[in-house]
Amino acid sequence: MNTYTAISFAPVQGFIEKSRKLRDLFGASLILSYLSQKIVEKAEEHLEKGCIISPGLIEHQEGMPNRILVKGELTREVVEKALLGEWQKILRVCREWVEDNIGIPKEQYHWAQKPQQVDQEKGEWERWGSYTWEVFMGWGRPDPDNPDKNLIKAAMDDLETRKLKRDWVAINWVGESSSLSGTDAIAWHRLGAKRDLSKTLTTDERLKEKEDQELFYRRLSWVLDNPEQRKGKAHDMSLEKLRAYEQPNAEGIGRYIAVNERLSIPELVKRLITYDKIDEKEPDDQKLKIAKLKTRPDDPEFKDIYREAGYWTGWFMGDGDQVGDKLKKLAEWNSDNPEKQAQDLQHFSKLMRGWGQEFEKRKDLFPGGKGRVIYAGGDDFMGVLYSEETQTEEKPDKLKPIEAWNWLMQLPKQWEKLQNDLADDLGFKDQHRFTYSVGFVWAGHQVPQRDILQHCREAEQRSKKLGRDRITIRVVFNSGQYVQWTCLWKHLEILNRCQDWTHLYNDWAYLKSRHAVRLKQIDQSKNPRNPVTRDLALVMLDLYFDGLGEEIQNAKKQEDQWNAIVGDYSDLAIVQWVNDLVQVGWQLCANSNT
Length: 594
Known about the structure:
Elements: E1 4-10, H1 13-17, H2 22-46, E2 52-54, E3 68-71, H3 76-101, H4 124-131, E4 134-140, H5 151-162, H6 203-225, H7 227-230, H8 239-246, H9 265-272, E5 313-320, H10 323-332, H11 338-361, E6 371-376, E7 380-385, H12 401-410, H13 416-426, E8 436-443, H14 449-465, E9 470-476, E10 482-488, H15 501-513, H16 535-544, H17 548-553, H18 562-566, H19 571-589
Parallel strand pairs: 8-9
Antiparallel strand pairs: 1-3, 1-4, 2-3, 5-7, 5-8, 6-7, 9-10
Helix pairs in contact: 2-3, 2-9, 3-4, 10-11, 11-13, 15-19
């Protein structure tokens, strides 16, 4: 009997979530996929071709998951060497590019090991190289006392057990924290410089330190905005010149890094890795071979989203529901036939990743081409609907709220084929049906991109917490305030049934102002005559949504009842859900907004 090895590494969500820009997200996704592929390649090198059960489509790097199942026994040392070795190579390439191209003398850098410190003391970059990732492994080994043991499931269960014990070392640092995470030190050339902490810096010394840091980031930003023309020329750019350059060119700077950003080492690396020539000085056999942001030189980057006053954008983030549980379920089926188990797991992964590739490449996915899928790994994806910048002085057409709404209505059709294939090929039916939870954010032009990404994550998590197979639509205004509504995909078309959004919105606002509709529970012992009731909410649904309130109240099927639709049966939850429906529907579907 064969031994099976299950492998994972962390932190994945934390690595992705510390993102301010789309470039951060894309860079994090590229790095994670690259590291996973390198582990897969090392497994085949140590075992044999074809030993990888999951993921499928291992030749395709983008969207490669970090959960790996191998037929054969791998040691922890092999996996750690592959993961940390490649991560350290990424760090070295990015660090050397900065040191070579922004015009600061190399002797002024203190952020990495000096030659005399090797094997004695690590610098800041070397610490991140050693302590960024946690590696977890589980094994399913033959047991003479239990010859019928399900070894694939045993490996997966062993992995989950071992993940309960952390494999993490914290990094101590001295200095100011990055403006993104707020927890890690700012990466700049004097990071790690030793000084006598018993002596307080003078005012002039503090000012000099701040100006040095500002110079570092302004030069880095300036070079990266046009690296092919500016590499090697940054030494001519003084702080005064760079400040003067910023004024007339404010809209054209900060494509990679804004001049006021202060990033930690991992945050900086996620930006730099999206530059397609970051490793150009490396020998051909040592190049990183990380998937590129641009497949062709003239492909667009992330600068083509028009976000002037009055231009709203729609951002969506989705994640497959209980993918880990589905993998475990597959591992339980055909327990007496390990070959069939392995084939099913591999086929599941191939279907998932194949769907992600197809979804990402769809040219007809968005209205009038106003959109882009940023990444799609199969069980997770993210993208944006937007008005694209024009090459002329004319302003582009606005993306209308009703366009975004109509696009959302069609989104579930994108994974219908995947659901059908999983059902037909692997028996995923009823309770095993594959679904997605999605967060959609409709954002005003002044909402910072970092805030939008956070709203997307929160909206997606809300969909999962309220029962999965749902979408949460969050409308975020320029003030930072928002309204949101969560609904099962099946019932999303409810908004299309409204007969008069203006009257509904005004009537609902009046009822709330007169306290006829209450959205908060009050202490009944103090005011027993005014409880929260659903009666008026149901009447409004009947009146404006063609009998919807009575329809749900009397529904026979469980998926059409309040518990399924709202996630709760209480009067308070139902009234709040109707309120959210009115607020979001008014913003996206009202005639006045089209």
